Amino acid sequence: MATVGFLHSAHAHVRSFRDLLAERDASVADRHLVDTGMLATARSRGLQAARPAVADRLRRLVAEGAEVVVCTCSTTGALAEEVGARTGVRVVRVDRPMAEAAVLAGRRIAVVTSLGEAADTLLPLLRECARDTGRDVELLDVRCTDTWTAFESGDLLTYTTGVAEAVRRAVASLRPAVDVVVLAQASMLDAAPLLRDLHVPVLTSPRLAVEAAVEAVVPVVPAGR
User: Fold this and answer.
1) Which pTM was predicted?
2) pLDDT per residue over 103-116, tens digit each?
3) What is the extent of the structural domain holding 16?
4) In 10 A of CB 193, how many CB atoms?
């Protein structure tokens, strides 16, 4: 049985990614490891301070049968990707598939973050993806850092609505209009349905990351077989 591992920095992500995987392909097994200290270390002491923990957690998920690991933390995703490449672990950085889709969706991209560290990692990734695809993009930095305490306290409704309200205020005032909105963090998944009235694509990372992980572990059967 194909198995996807998930490395989380918050317990709230387990159910979301489990449901998305079951929706995408119920035949794929999942393994989840939550380390709340990983993000805390990266924020307080710098990203490289979290390297030993990230490497250890990746090894543990592989030992449990994971063929590919999705790092669902935007802040530590780049580090997990790097550690995986060095140690032979296939890692899907949660925001990479989203970033690749965003640069193809339009030139003016609103990038929404509730953590400064997430912006520090996603903005360079978007520029990298734009260069790789030969796209010219304009990144509009939308911060809603005052909402993060609600997520940390487990008040997901307040967090989600706060993110959506901040996006609506910011995007409504932008001229010319944006082509696409990127909700940078996996924690923002449930804010997307609240933004349908914007009439522009609103991208989130979890579903696209799960798609990429499944494609990595499930063989593609040629048509006609």
Assistant:
1) 0.90
2) 999 999 999 999 98
3) 3-94+209-217
4) 11
